Amino acid sequence: MSQKPVDLLFGDLWSYAPAPESPSHVKYPKQLSHFIGGQFEPGDNFFPVINPATEEVLTECPAADAATVDRAVKAARTAYEKYWRPMPGRERAKYLHRIARMIQEKARELAILESMNGGKPIREARDVDVPLAAAHFSYYAGWADKLKYAFPGLGLDGPQPLGVAGQIIPWNFPLLMAAWKIAPALATGNTVVLKAAETTPLTCWKLAEIIQEADLPPGVVNIIHGFGATGAALVNHPDVNKIAFTGSTEVGKIIQRSIAGTKKKLTLELGGKGANIIFEDAAIDQAVEGIVNGIWFNQGHVCCAGSRLLVEESVVDQVILKLQQRMETLVVGDPLDKNTDIGAINSRAQLDTINELVQAGLDEGGIMHQSPCKLPEKGFFFRPTFFSGVTPSSRIAQEEIFGPVLAILTFRTPAEAIEKANNTPYGLSAGIWTDKGAKIFAMASALKAGVIWGNTFNKFDPTSPFGGYKESGFGREGGRHGLLPYLDLQG
Ligand code: NAP
Ligand code: MG
Question: What CATH number belongs to 34-270+472-488?
Answer without folding.
Answer: 3.40.605.10
